[in-house]
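Feature request, filed as a ticket because there's no other form

It would be nice if the structure record came with a short human-readable summary line next to the tokens. Right now we just get the raw output. Example of a typical job, pasted below so the devs can see what we mean:
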Amino acid sequence: MRRIAVLASIGAALLGAVPALAADGPVKQYPQTVTLGFYRGQVISYLDFGPVKLARGNAVAPIWVVTNGVEAQRNIVDTVPGRSDYTPLWAVRMVTWKDGVTPRVLRSKGAVDRAVRGGQATVKAAPVVVNCPVL
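Raw output as currently delivered:
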């Protein structure tokens, strides 16, 4: 009986170490919130440690944040761990749908580029870099 209790305790600890994900947004998991985003049309998860001050030589990649999109919109990145251009430091780019345009979910850098080229949205660099390692 004691052996079963110990195994159950170990199993619970292991399950607690796995990040929780939700289909509709961040899930509070001690000690950090897991956030969902898009990478080339796929849903990814990442931790959001917020703004950082860069040191000389830090590499950054863009992260696109839609300011006035639909509820299902997530932030968009174009690199992930394992790629040579990956970094957990993201230069924020604000994507805004123009007046009169019906917003839709953008799931990739290509989708953002097409919306901008089509005159439907604008992109403006924000003066902030965030630390958001992709899981």
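Something like this underneath would help us a lot:
Residues 21-131 form one domain.
DSSP finds two helices and eight strands in the chain.
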